[in-house]
Amino acid sequence: MAKRDVQDPLQMWREWVDGAERQWNSALNEFMGTEQFGQASGKMMEAFLGMQASMNEATQRYLSALNLPTRNDVLSIAERLTGIEDRLSDIDRRLTSVAPSAPGPSRPPRPKPKRTKKAPGKTVTKKVASKKRAAKAKAKK
Known about the structure:
Oligomer: single chain
Number of strands: 0
Structural class: mainly alpha
């Protein structure tokens, strides 16, 4: 059989995508290099920053009204806790350098509590079964 000269459809698609991408890149780079694009993107950024600031203020007022902590409150507490942890680590380091850790007073192990209930055995089940038979016999009479 003779070999057929068939083009790979995926290869054709890849070539088309590469060509389209090159065209779009050149067109968009040309467009983004203009003064008008710079002014428009600057105005959009200013509008976005203004909206973001007003949303932050509104969110802080809303959280305050609900008596919930804001992001700044949580960050402030986190900074304070970090400072406390650092100071505790420093104190611990100083104490271990002054007096190396000595074994503390040893306590005997705690005794386990005694069992107050016992598992049911065969005698218990026989008694229950005999009581049931007796109750049935009385019911029949």
